[in-house]
């Protein structure tokens, strides 16, 4: 490095183009001084600092010199000064003007304060209006949403109405068919009424026959019940006879008759059966013997009574069978 450039304060290398001032011997980069190669190539080159310090020569006779203006007092100004009032009058006017300006300033200040308060109120009202506007906007959004919902509901209701109209058409056709069926049925009913009126006499005769039949049936039923009572009076119940498989009740009855010394023809015993149990028990079923007459029943009962009386220690029981 050869030295430092006085223009950019950066070191000047040996490989860089450089130039020195012939007066101050200052070192400069050629790029920092000028791009004119003719000036850089001059032998007696002076740097800008030395060139600025050199007095310029030449003739200054043609240089314009500015002459100061003179202010002359016009006669009107002196007359105005002579006509002014004294200083006390001016001071009093200034004081009155000052007080007036002070009062005006106070009034303007009060007006400004009132304006400031009004502005604050307006700002508050503006904030409230913004809130109200936001609320109205929300309400408007909700109204729009409700309107959309109502539109959708109307569309659905329209579809339902169309379906209902179609269903009503189907129902009307069915009602028409039912009316036709009712007309047909009414005609049939009228025909049946005519036929029933013709059969009314037959029905009255049948009612008379039915009443006669009811009377006869009741009389026959009473007779049957009487006969049943009579037939029951011919019965004898034999209890506590053990049941056996393939038993012969007629043989058992004959053994009993032989034991009590009663001899009866075979045709006297009409039937001999065991009665069904009404409740579940281990007791043998009762044997019911139906005799031909009440006289035969009394004969057997008296024979049993005589046997038990004659044999008090060996009364009639199932052991004799």
Automatic annotation (TrEMBL):
GO-annotated molecular function: zinc ion binding
Keywords: Metal-binding, Zinc, Zinc-finger
InterPro entries recorded: Zinc_finger_PHD-type_CS, Znf_FYVE_PHD, Znf_RING/FYVE/PHD
Record-linked PROSITE patterns: ZF_PHD_1
Transmembrane regions: none
Protein name per Swiss-Prot or TrEMBL: PHD-type domain-containing protein
Phylogenetic classification of the source organism: Eukaryota, Metazoa, Ecdysozoa, Arthropoda, Hexapoda
